[in-house]
Amino acid sequence: MTVDAELPAGVPGIDVPRLAGWLAHALPGSGRITAVDLISGGRSNLTYRIVLDDGGRGGPDAGRHVVLRRPPLGHVLPTAHDMGREYRVLSALGPRTAVPVPTTLAFCDDESVIGAPFYLMDHVTGRVLREVEDAAGLTPEQAAGLSERLAEALAAIHLVDVDAVGLGDFGRPEGYMARQLRRWGKQWDASQEAIRAAGAVHDVPEYDRLAARLAERLPAGGRAALVHGDFRLDNALVRLEPAPRIAAVVDWEMSTLGDPLSDLGLTLVYWAQADDPDAERLPVGASVTTAPGFFTRREFTERYAALTGFDLADIDFYVAFACFKLAVILEGIHARFLQNATVGEGFDQIGDAVPILVSRAHRILDSGSPW
Questions:
Q1: Which of 7, 59, 244, 345 is positioned for an S-S bond with 145, CB 3.0–4.6 A?
Q2: Which tens digits make up the pLDDT trace of 151-189?
Q3: Residue 328 near residue 338, CB atoms below 8 Å
Q4: Are 313 and 263 in contact (CB under 8 A)?
C-alpha cells in the first residue's frame, strides 16, 4: 500500500494518514485508501466504510470496501466499547457456526493510530431496516420471513457450543443477571456525573425504585449461553431476494456469556408494533416492525421458544430488566450529547426515551406480563 498525499480528507474519529500507514503493515497489498465515510445510524461505537483502491480500474468507490469499528468520542462508560472482545467473538463465530457475521480482517490496540482501539472487517452487502419508511416495497410475506429469520438468528446465537468455538472463557455466566444489575447501576451513576459536569440535570423519577424491584426479582439460576447484548432488527443486515435472510448480525460490543433471555427481553423492548400507545414509542429501535406482516412481540417470542425449547415463564422480568438496561444505555448517550461528543443526527431526542422506558418497566412488573 502506498501512503502518499492523495489520501481523502478525514472524518471525525479517523486520522487517515496514520490509518493508511498502519494498514500498509496490517494488510499488505490492500491498496490505497480512496474514501472514508461515517456510516449513519450508530449511536454507540462508530462504524466507517473504507474504500481501498482497485488499481485505478474504476471510480472512487470501485475498489474493495471494508468496515472499521471504533469506540465513540467523548464520555465512554467504564467496561463498555471493548473492541478486542467484539473482534474476538466475530472471529470465533464466522468460520464455525450458523450465526451470520462479517469476516474479520485485523485488530489494532495501538491508540496512537486513530485515538482508540479499532478493528477492520469485510463489508457485507445488505439493507438496514429501521424506520417504517424502509418497509416501502416490502411485502407482508417478506416481513414475516424476516421475522422468522431474525428469530432463527437469535436462537442460533444462544445455541452456540461456546467451548467448541473457543469462547468458553468469554464471560462468567454464574450470577450474570445480578452482575448486570450492579454494572448498569454503576453506569447510570457515571452518566449522571457526566451530565452534571456538562452543567445539566436529567431527573428521572422512579429509576431507584425500578432498580430495587428488579433486585427483588433476580432469577436464582438461569441458562448459560453466548449473548449478543444488543440484538434487534436494525443491528442486522438483511437481504430480501431471492428470499428474505439475515446477511449478518452486527454490533457485538456487549456480547458475553450470560442468560440468553436477557437478549430476548431487549429484542422485545426494541420491537415496535402498530398498536403501541404513542406514550411508549421510542426514538431508537426499528419502527419498521410496525409494517404489515411483521410478527408481533408475542409471535416472535413463541417462535424463539419453539426453536430453543427454553422456559419463558419469567419473560416479564427479562423485558422489564431490558427496559432498565436500555434506559441506562440511552442515558450514557444523552450524556455524550450534552458534552457535544456525538457524531450524527437524532441525539437530541435520546434523553426523552429514558423516563418512558423506566415507566414501561414498572407497568410490566405491575401486570406480570410484557404484552
A1: 244
A2: 999 999 999 999 999 999 999 999 999 999 999 999 999
A3: no
A4: no
